[in-house]
Amino acid sequence: MKRFVLGTAALACAVSMNAQRKAALYDSTQVEALQEIVVKGVRAQKNAPFAVANIKKQELNAFSKTGKELPFLFSQTPGVVAWSENGLGTGTTYMRIRGAGDSRINVTLDGVPLNSPEDQCVFWANMNSYGSLLGSVQIQRGVGTSTNGDGAFGGTVALSSAIPSLKAGGEISASYGSFNTFNIGGKFSTGLLWKHLIFDGAYHETNTDGFIHGTSGRSGSYYGGLTWIDRNFQIHYKNIGNFEKTGQAWNGVTAGDNDMSLMDGTYGINTGIKTYEDMWNVGLGKFNSLYEYLTYDANGNFAKDANGNYVTARYQMDDGSYWDKTTDNFWQNHNILSAVYDINEHWSTSASLHYTYGYGYYSEFRPNNKLKKFGLSYNGVKKTDFVRQKGLSQNTYGFIWNANYKDELWDVIGGFSLQEFDGNHFGYLTYIANEDVRKRYMSYRNYKYYDSDATKFDGNAFIKAAYHINEQWDVFGDLQYRYVQYETCGKNDKFYEETSGYYNQKLNIDEKYRFLNPKAGFSWTLGGHRAYGSVALSHREPERNNFTDNGSYPFPKAEKLIDYELGYTFNSDIFRFGINGYYMDYTDQFVQTGLLSDIGEKLTTNVKDSYRMGIELQAAVDPFSWLTFEGNAALSKNKIKDFDEVVEDWDNGSTTIHYDNSTLAFSPSTILNGFVNLHYKGIQAIWHTNFVSRQYLDNTENQDRSLPSYCVSNASVSYTLKPKKAIKEAIFGLNFNNIFNKHYAANGWVYSAIYASGGHDNDNRYYQIGFIPMAGFTMMGNLTLRF
Question: 680: how many CB neighbours lie within 10 A of its CB?
Fold first, then answer.
């Protein structure tokens, strides 16, 4: 790493003088205008009638030094919640916008879809340094404008890479903090070479011991870019890679079991009180059932130490060694070749070819599992320990083209995208504790217990236009057509028992979807005042898990959403204010049942009628040039009009319970953010407080099966020196997280069942709750040097 950093600095200095002379050939605003053409097809046009938050380069670059994944920066905007499995904001990270999960959030980089075509998610696990590579981010809440890739049902996140610097330079950074978390990185630009060529690159990685036991890991990314520019033409090739080997904790800290007689120490412990705070108080605040288990004393009770804390132990292999940790191992490489041509004062066009390769697997210890879970049988042996390795490989190819016409009255954008995906899912048993079973199934190599293939084609064509009626009024129209075909075949990782043995769940899915998505709206502007309104229709196809893991629920349907937005903003030199009201009317929305698959994925089902409605507020005031007070609030009501819950009934198999107007799971009614920003000369200090109200873990609106509200405060301080010699800038920073050491869970899961013969009717169900907690007080210091 040191060689890379020193080489970066040397290269930057060697070409600096020559590149600076040639940079005068171009104005940086010209290069920036060309980059805007690339992303204009997926971003909201000026004054477009949608709820939008924009994050600028300086904020993105500063955040990249924290080592946290980008969703934690996005969560400072209205209606966004973020959390990570290891509790520190690194590694596997998730987000929701207006209560809608990752698979309903469309994410693009320079217009290229980043969502996995099958899971429809972006797995924010190895993208912690993307902030340093980006020039801006636009978050559209709700349906927003037409975009490429999967339909936006909660929001759209449009990432735009930073324009390459016309001047030679470089940057190195290092951060270190709590739980031995450190982030190192560097980037450089050669500046303009031979009047037209720029080469730039970057490398960043984060290492951590993790807050939750067994979540240590390493993740990061690298980037290389080659750009050829002229005054009105640009060709850019980007290679962006991500990697990770991170410890997993998808089960969370499992607690809330309300019947000791039914407990299994593998999964958790009855604390008598149903909060994460109580888990902390009995020494299980970092408990990870993927890594450890509860022990028993001589009387058959859960063992405790002298301080009254429960005692845990590591899983052990048959050779006496201990299972290290459950790891997720994934590599991904994006290749994007884009060209943009500013034809004349009215016309511009851009095109991109892209290819992404991904490969990964996770490796997990499964204690005392039934052989039939993996389709095995052997001479009366019912259970043993296993290590399973589940993985996938992915190839995604695509082409995108956009054209833009703009004059004094019209701003029209049209284009299309084509994307083809093929993937393979596989699973191996790499360890079987029982020697006889191991010899039978693993004599020469790992035992492959499932394998399936999938393909998906996604075609999208759109046209959107803004018409400037006069100085005050603009109207907008947007029409998109999507065609999707998804096929998967082979053997899945679930087994069914028949008289002659166990058989894999067979996959034979071939579904086609045709969606027409119109949008329309208006915008009124007068001085600092602006009002807008829009209505947008969107559709979304089921994801892979909706087909394979729907359990007792019926075959999944495509979703439909009509989104109504109405807003007002005011801007002056000192004061800024905005209010946005929305009503999102869903048909066949996929909602989370509160249950998890055996790898921590949240299971869902269609519900016929549901809605999300709310108000989003933003305000900021600058009483002095060096001081800003800012805040935002998202107040919402999220309901299912009619919901039939299929709940496990240990006496009768299953029971269906009907609910009228129940609250959607994982949809807090209140999300608040407040900021105090002091900025004077080279000093910047920011205080941030975040409040998230109660979240129900299933759709029954039962407080026993919910997460309490939480309020957390963070602070950051930085000081910038400008020596103006070999080092242009030196930035020293400190970040303080969860200053008041709040013990809270930002997410979780629940399992509940009816067991009337055991005293658990519907009003007193047996249940277990898994908490996904965030760490208490942590801090990190960082240093950045720019050349």
Answer: 11
Could you tell me where the DSSP H helices lie in 24-135? 28-39, 57-63, 71-74, 130-133
Residue 407: Cβ-neighbour burial (10 angstroms; 0-12, 13-18, 19+) = exposed
* Ramachandran sector of residue 231 (left: φ over 0; alpha: ψ -120 to 50; beta: rest): alpha
Structure tokens at 621: 């005031």
647-666 pLDDT tens trace: 888 898 888 889 989 999 99
Question: Please, which residues bridge with residue 503 across strands?
Answer: 496
What separation, in Å, do the N-terminal and C-terminal C-alpha atoms of the chain show?
A: 17
Q: Are strands 501-526 and 529-540 parallel, antiparallel or unpaired?
A: antiparallel
Residue 8 scores a pLDDT above 50: no
Residue listed under structure tokens 């070409």: 15
- Alpha-carbon distances of 348 from 227, 340, 402, rounded to whole Å: 18, 8, 9
pLDDT of the residue at 21:
45
User: How far is it, in rounded angstroms, from Cα 614 to Cα 193?
Assistant: 52
* Residue 122 to residue 149: CA distance in whole angstroms: 12
Residue type, 153: F
pLDDT interval class at 6 (50, 70, 90)? very low
**pLDDT of amino acid 665:** 92
Go through the domains of the chain in sequence order and give each one's CATH number. 2-250+325-786 (2.40.170.20)
- Per-residue pLDDT at 725: 79
Compute the distance between CA of residue 325 and CA of residue 246 in angstroms, rounded to an integer.
Answer: 9
Number of H helices, E strands in the chain: 8, 37
What's the full length of the chain, in residues? 787
Q: CA dihedral defined by 318, 324, 325, 327, rounded to 10 degrees?
A: -100
Tokens standing for 420?
Answer: 């083809």
Say how far apart CA 337 and CA 33 lie, in whole Å: 18
Q: Calculate the average pLDDT of the chain.
A: 89
Q: How far is residue 661 from each of residues 25, 564, 610, measured CA to CA in Å?
A: 63, 20, 8
Burial 502-523 (b: 16+ CB within 10 A, else e): eebeebeeebebebebebebeb
Q: Point out which residues pair with 440 in neighbouring strands.
A: none
Q: How far, in Å, are 475, 519, 751 from residue 53 at the CA level?
A: 21, 20, 36
Report which secondary-structure segment, H or E, holds 280: helix 276-281
177's tokens: 């903090």
3-state secondary structure of 606: strand
Q: CA–CA separation, 54 vs 159, rounded Å? A: 10
Instruction: Name every residue whose Cβ is closer than 8 Å to that of residue 545 and which is 6 or more positions away in sequence.
Output: 119, 597, 601, 603, 604
Q: Which of 750, 763, 761 is nearest to 274 (CA)?
A: 750
* CA distances for 134 relative to 58, 60, 559, 648, 758, angstroms: 10, 7, 32, 47, 57
Separation between Cα atoms, residue 484 and residue 512, nearest integer Å: 6
The C-alpha atoms of residue 590 and residue 559 are separated, in whole angstroms, by: 7
**Report field, pTM of the whole predicted structure over 0.85:** yes
Q: Alpha carbon of 597 to those of 385, 451, 545, 629, 698: distances in Å?
A: 19, 18, 9, 43, 15
Closest to 650 (Cα-Cα) out of 754, 539, 745, 514: 754
Which amino acid, one-letter code, is at 235?
I
* Look-up of token digits 């946290």: 68
Rounded distance, CA 297 to CA 676, Å?
52
Closest by CA position to 140, among listed 151, 132, 131, 126: 151
DSSP 666: T
Q: Please state, in angstroms and rounded to a whole number, the distance separating the CA atoms of residues 74 and 136.
A: 12
Closest listed residue to residue 184, CA positions, set 208, 164, 167 = 208
> And the tokens for 476?
């907008």
Distant-in-sequence, close-in-space partners of 709: CB < 8 Å, separation ≥ 6? 668, 670, 691, 692, 693, 694
